[in-house]
Amino acid sequence: MTLQVKALSKAINHQQIIEDISFDWAPGEIIGLVGRNGVGKTTLFRTLTNQYVAEQGQVLIDGQSTTRHPLQQRQLFFLDGQYNFLSNYRLWEIPEFFRLVYAQFDQQRYQDLLVQFELDRNSQYRRLSKGMRALVNLILALTSNATYIILDEPFDGLDVIVRENIATMVIDEVADQQKGFLISSHDLNELDGLSDRVLLLKDSRLVQDYHLEEIRETAKKLQLVFNDKTIPAVLKEHSQLIRVSGRVLVVVITHYTPEIDQQLRALNPVLLEELPLTLEDLFRANLAHDTGYQLMK
Amino acid sequence: MHNQLDRLIWRRHRRLFLALGALALFANVVMVIIALSSRQTAGAHQLVGASIHHWATYKGDYFTAYSYWLIFVYWLAGLLLMNQDLKDNFNQFLFTSGFSRQRVYWTKLRQSLVVLLGISIVTIAVQYSLYWLMKPHGVSFTLAWPGLLTSWISGLAVATGLFAICWFAALIIGQTGALIVTVTGFTLSLMSVGAISQPILTNRPFSLSGSQLTWLVIGVWLIAAIILFVWGAVLYQHLSLEHNGEYLMVPRLKRPVYLVFVIYVTGIFSWGDTSWMADVVTFLITVIFGYAWLWRPRIGERLHQWRARHDG
């Protein structure tokens, strides 16, 4: 069982929003999707789910194209947080729609979760706060029992307690390897604790597909202080600058080798300390154009 | 599968169907009451005229065989059924639901037409019953199949045709206000088309009789409806929701729509006009108005940019 995205492209008003996106996604995986604002994360989701017609490429579930075999789409759940049809319905009415589409929809669990999160079943969706709406969307995603679940900014507007509950629930859902999540979020700390893999979108394209365990084995985040004010060539060549504070440099080296280590130590730095590498560091290293060495001149 | 989709669409639109049914019933009941109360002062002995025995659409003073309100309900239904799903983002759900778009389109259309036919039957039954029950003492209410059947078929054909126009327009137009203006304008323009075409068809070389004209009009409405339904199905298959909120949901239709608009509107306003100067003015106004209407977001955008540059 797998979902394959193959060379998916979408232009809106002659502007390329996503281009040649390809990746595989298997149940049991929690994939984070990160990228700067407006890079095309939501467009990718909407194109994946056939709301937007793709210019090129296809989505295959178990080897079958979702456009040619629409029934396969029921394995894929995506509820747009910004534009959905729920506004005029009360919470108790909503499952009537979802159980007609998702055969495994768990109505009892839906009701139980409403009670657990103290959501009034008689409330109209549009009268809920932003955070509560996000919570209802999440409850629907979990109770749909679809194999592949897309969550677009799921933690937006949720308080810390609810976030923790949701994160725990997501992890529990994938424990039996029957479900997979694709989560976009600007909360990189939250994603860091959840994701196995992270896809990085930049300039309409998928520029990185990080397996976090693997990247943590090869990448290092270092804090360095040198006697000399000039930046050593080895750093310019192999590292990405994350932060500068006086003469303290914080850098990420994605492929840290013994040779690089040797070269750095040969420079006799005043300080060479390894720091824990976070998703935020990878994000900054790849996507923050304005923190490069060129700005230090 | 079919059953599930039927239930989904019914679940989504049942309130709207109920409201349309209530509107049709209420309007027709009021119409009957007004007709009968106006009849009491007139003093005739027949509610229905003798022309009900002819194979032609019945038109009388007190009795309406197929109410204009029913036609209006079909018109409104076409508009709302398509526009609501777009505006309320139900299309997003339908497109991700695992039902093929073709199946969604035809199921929705079938269910809508069946419900509207049901509304017509119930409304006509209630309307005729009211005529019979409320007719004043000494006044007869005599019906005949030729006039009734022709009126029903003609009424249903016109209603279905108008439903198809609104259904199609609501499929391709992504702005509710602009949709209402466009469809209302087009519907009103059809009266001019009728006024222009009737003398052409009843005079030489066609010389159609009243009855022939009625059946020709029925045929034209039904063929137009079928063409619009099939064309709508093709467009629905390729509908991409990023255009939601734009005037045209199918951008490639912009130029054809512009061309048809200019020819159609210029033709209607210039018909029978002997002054070529007036025709040229009509043409120019249509060209400018059509361009501004269809390309107005870009015009507005450029105006905004121009202002920003000059203010800066």
Automatic annotation (TrEMBL), chain A:
Gene3D superfamilies referenced in this protein's UniProt entry, alphabetically: P-loop containing nucleotide triphosphate hydrolases
Keywords associated with the record: ATP-binding, Nucleotide-binding
Cited InterPro entries: AAA+_ATPase (IPR003593), ABC_transporter-like_ATP-bd (IPR003439), ABC_transporter-like_CS (IPR017871), P-loop_NTPase (IPR027417)
SUPFAM superfamilies: P-loop containing nucleoside triphosphate hydrolases
Domain ABC transporter span(s) in chain numbering: 3-228
Highest taxon above the source species: Bacteria
GO MF annotation terms: ATP binding; ATP hydrolysis activity
Protein name, UniProt field: ABC transporter, ATP-binding protein
From TrEMBL, chain B:
TM helices/strands, residue ranges: 63-82, 113-132, 152-172, 179-201, 213-236, 256-272, 278-295
Record flagged with keyword Lipid biosynthesis: no
Keywords from the named record: Membrane, Transmembrane, Transmembrane helix
Name by which UniProt lists this protein: ABC transporter permease
Keyword Iron: no
